[in-house]
């Protein structure tokens, strides 16, 4: 079933209800800073916060792909490519070439580096070096960008310096670019909720944020000035950054909605599994009314197994959906994996419980059959005893013919007695494998040691 075939941890983790936000062995280092700023987002943190979570769990998204060493090698190549693109961008700017094309290629390479960092995180490999590479490339990109801006500024200033009316045209451009960078950092460092209520609040807040960045005084002033100065290169760069901000904001909105739906689906399955689990854990497997509950329990067990087969298909479909989100490097992959870890643990435990039910049904049915035969044998022996006592009576006045007739009858009874003896021996042998049910009753007082045998894998976390 879904557990045994998907590498699910079948050990019991503490209780039936793992705390999802703390379940699994995940450690979150994503910023959870207090709210601030004019648009409702917290203070900006470095990019590294979004990629430096560490996992002590061995889980991952699964699937094929390069191993840890291959990803590290790919990251080194990407870093070299990024630096090469930036060098070419500087050279193009000095020679009047298309510097922006190389800048765009450098940005794309940085995005690929981010993907390497995320993939390493998902497979449980250290990604600190790759994250540092991303930081280095981002800093170099900013440095080259500023150098290009200053070069354009000097060229324009030298061209227009004799007019006597020069006003620094780069000031509004730098302010606009700084504003865009600030909004991007706010998005990058915004936390991801791990429950429906928090996610709904974050979604509403981000929708307000998205509306607030549709118009900006900094952008309007920069565009007006760049249009007046005829600075098409800077205007193009500004528009590209603006489009990048809009895409980033729109992506966060989509990610929040996707995370909300995934957590909602997983939570529903966890509740379903927990309900089935509780239903089985409270069942009384004692000896009271055993002849009544055995057939009913056999029927409910059959229904449970059918329900689990159907639920397995649902969980497999859900796992495909989750795997797609993880493969696409969802920023809240840690939250999704924590929920899936809880679901998989609960599911595996429910499968273990079905093994217990199967054994209990077998042993309790044997218990019921044993006492049924024992009581029937006891009644037969009592009846036979009473028959012999009444039928085979004699005294000194009994005639020889009557005594001979009694002897003939006794020979016939001998076979019945031997058959009863065999039945008693059968019950004696059978009793050695019968599980005692009375000790399961907490009100039953036992003067001897009760041996308990585990029917499934069980692990109780020590707290």
Write the layout of secondary structure elements.
Elements: E1 26-27, E2 54-55, H1 68-95, H2 99-122, H3 128-160, H4 170-188, H5 196-212, H6 217-229, H7 232-281, H8 290-327, H9 333-391, H10 400-431
Antiparallel strand pairs: 1-2
Helix pairs in contact: 1-2, 1-3, 2-3, 4-6, 4-7, 5-7, 6-7, 7-8, 7-9, 8-9, 9-10
Can you describe this structure?
The protein is mostly helical and 463 residues long. The chain has a domain at 26-159 and 168-191 and 220-246. It is built from 10 helices and 2 strands, in the order E-E-H-H-H-H-H-H-H-H-H-H. Helix 4 packs parallel to helix 7. 23% of the residues are buried. Mean pLDDT is 77; it is low at 1-65 and 161-169.
Descriptors for this entry?
2 strands, 10 helices, mainly alpha
Short recap of the structure:
With 463 residues, this protein is an all-alpha fold.
